[in-house]
Design a protein that fits this description.
Oligomer: single chain
CATH class of the largest domain: Mainly Beta
CATH architecture of the largest domain: Roll
Shape: globular
Number of strands: 11
Number of domains: 2
Radius of gyration: 15 Å
Helix content: 10-25%
Number of helices: 4
Length: 163
């Protein structure tokens, strides 16, 4: 993964990111410096907040939307949009596997199918990945079936990215 371009964001773009993450996740990023890093060979672009890769842009219904990275979610814990997995699912999710119903202990019921979600482990609340909900949050806990498609996880190229 290489950097295609890098530039500071205007204040209106920073406000859009803050509003989107605040409304969707209850996250307050803080930060003074926001830089957009466009990447080659990646479906995402990154936003560095005070030099840390805390936000990614992903495609949703043909439009780019901001969402937190794994590092961003661990630095700024979300209040909403979280799917919690048990200890048995940790190694699979950390390797990029999609999330299956039997591994889920809890899911925010306000999650709608198609939305990006945070995947956290139940013991310490650490974020392991970011995914896209395949079903509504109220339907996630159960006995069988895939419910979250993995987009980004601990140890992937995006997680390891440094400038």
């Amino acid at each position: 993964m290489e950097v295609k371009s890098r530039h500071h964001l205007r204040s209106d773009a920073v406000s859009e990111i803050r509003d989107a993450l605040g409304n969707r996740l209850g996250v307050d990023l803080g930060g003074d410096s926001f830089e957009l890093v466009e990447l080659t060979d990646s479906p995402f672009d990154l936003v560095l907040v005070d030099g840390d890769p805390n936000v990614l842009y992903h495609e949703a219904d043909g439009e780019r939307e901001p969402f937190v990275t794994v590092r961003g979610a661990n630095a700024h814990p979300p209040e909403r949009g979280v799917v919690t997995v048990d200890a048995g699912a940790v190694s699979f999710v950390s390797d990029g596997a999609d999330v299956m119903r039997p591994g889920i202990t809890e899911a925010d019921e306000s999650i709608a199918a198609g939305e990006p979600v945070i995947i956290a482990e139940e013991t310490h609340g650490k974020v392991l990945g970011v995914g896209r909900a395949l079903v509504d949050g109220a339907e996630m806990v159960g006995d069988s079936g895939k419910v979250v498609r993995s987009l980004h996880h601990v140890g992937d190229d995006l997680y390891e990215f440094s400038v």
